[in-house]
Design goal:
Blueprint lengths: L1 H14 L2 H17 L3 H29 L2 H15 L8 H15 L7 H12 L5 H12 L1
Helix pairs in contact: 1-2, 2-3, 3-4, 5-6, 5-7, 6-7
């Protein structure tokens, strides 16, 4: 996730998008200050991004209520850019299908094969799924 943030900051700087650059730097600073272990950084970065999005959604509602259309549009744009950093949400059915596909591909038969299944999911989805949720589904399928 740190690499994705660095790349997003560089892209935003190149495009001259100062508000997004500031927001991305805030996220990076929060994650750095909290000093999460490597395996926790992805999950916690999504939490930080969601908290910042909630703040901007509140600002959006205020700007819309007050008739500040230009400021509301800027907030909408920032929220959409933040959403692009979050994992895509898959339907339950498509997530189950992905997990069953990986279980079949690696020949998993029990909970002992969970790491292999999750490794295949990570490899193919490139950070676009909620791994905690996927892990719960994989555990229930492998039992």
């Amino acid at each position: 996730m740190k690499d994705r943030l660095k790349l997003a900051i560089l892209e935003a700087e190149t495009l001259g998008d100062a508000p997004f650059v500031q927001t991305l730097r805030l996220i990076a600073t929060v994650l750095e200050d909290q000093g999460f272990a490597t395996e926790d950084i992805e999950k916690n970065s999504y939490s930080v991004i969601r908290q910042i999005m909630a703040y901007h959604q509140e600002r959006l509602a205020i700007f819309q209520a007050s008739g500040s259309h230009k400021k509301a549009q800027a907030e909408k744009s920032l929220i959409q850019k933040l959403e692009s950093l979050l994992p895509k949400t898959y339907s339950e059915d498509s997530l189950h299908a992905m997990i069953h596909e990986k279980i079949t591909a690696c020949g998993a038969r029990s909970i002992r094969d969970l790491k292999t299944v999750m490794a295949l999911l990570r490899q193919d989805s490139r950070g676009e799924i909620n791994y905690e949720h996927a892990k719960g589904i994989a555990i229930s399928v492998l039992r």
